[in-house]
Write a structure and sequence with these properties.
34% of the residues are buried. This protein is α+β, with helices and mostly antiparallel strands. The chain is 43% helix and 16% strand. It has three domains: 3-49; 57-176, no CATH class; 185-278, VSR Endonuclease (Endonuclease, Chain A, 3-Layer(aba) Sandwich).
């Protein structure tokens, strides 16, 4: 596989050093301006490629934090999607100074306790992106992103623990609470709401053979979080209703909340649960 084919297969962006493993310096120079262009010294991109990675490189760094989350398919916090750029800790160039004032760019540097590695394809790996995000996003969004990375197998639990241990205490909380139990970032956000309210819960409890509920509170209150992605189709909605009926027949009480409710009406969701918990409705079957 020649250099151009390899770059097409691996995302269209690489370092010059990596390119030299597949083509000579003369061959690379001959392709500059026609097949290849350089968004930053030491980097090559295929002609016509313009994305958040090349934009980050043009401003002196690599894509990181929530921008990297999106590239890796992790949970991305709701809100304006700026390009998050990590520059080398020791870099203080005019380019970087100018980037700090560019609208739409959030500039970062890696924490002093962590290695300042350059990723090979212009975007931080999930663990590095989480390290940067620990100083940028809320603890709830951080745990949601870490949960999604664990669930997808993008990071290992031991590596995540090691990262949390290396960070200052104020930046650890979202990472220390992460698990692979949440099926979506919305579930992670809801779990954080329950923890803050002091409500104990179990995730992914198997109450019907082969079926797992998002949250079980006490012995009888089931809470399901419906994202548009996983619960928006008519077929899935029909399956959800059938499962709700089966759970109700067994004496469980089922509450469902949408993505929008969890993100924008958290207090209302919590109030509904607290009303049931205060009546001890989560500890007995409704048919009793």
């Amino acid at each position: 596989m020649d250099l151009v084919e390899w770059m097409r297969a691996t995302g269209g962006l690489c370092t010059v050093q990596a390119a030299r493993d597949r083509a000579s310096s003369d061959e690379i120079d001959a392709m500059r301006g026609s097949v290849l262009w350089s968004p930053l010294r030491g980097w090559l991109a295929l002609a016509g490629m313009r994305d958040e990675r090349t934009w980050a490189l043009q401003h002196g760094g690599v894509a990181t934090c929530v921008t990297a989350f999106a590239r890796h398919g992790m949970w991305v916090p709701h809100g304006p999607q700026h390009v998050h750029v990590r520059v080398n800790r020791e870099t203080h160039s005019a380019r970087v100074a100018a980037a700090a004032s560019v609208p739409g760019i959030v500039l970062h540097r890696m924490h002093l306790r962590l290695p300042d590695r350059r990723p090979g394809h212009g975007v931080d790996v999930p663990l590095a992106a989480l390290a940067v995000a620990s100083g940028c996003v809320s603890a709830d969004d951080l745990v949601a992103a870490a949960d999604s990375a664990l669930a997808a197998g993008l990071i290992g639990r031991d590596d995540l623990r090691a990262l949390a241990a290396a960070l200052p205490r104020r930046r650890r909380r979202g990472l220390e609470r992460a698990s692979s139990l949440s099926g979506s970032g919305t579930e992670s956000a809801f779990a954080a709401v329950l923890r803050r309210a002091g409500i104990a819960f179990a995730q992914q409890a198997e109450l019907v053979p082969g079926e797992y509920v998002d949250f079980l509170i006490g012995t009888s209150l089931v809470v399901e979080i419906d994202s548009q992605r996983w619960h928006g189709s008519p077929d899935q909605q029909a399956r959800d209703r059938a499962r709700d009926a089966a759970l109700t027949a067994l004496g469980y009480r089922v509450l469902r909340f949408t993505y929008e409710q969890v993100l924008f009406e958290r207090e209302r969701c919590l109030a509904a649960i607290l009303a049931i918990v205060r009546r001890d409705g989560h500890r007995r079957r409704s048919w009793r």
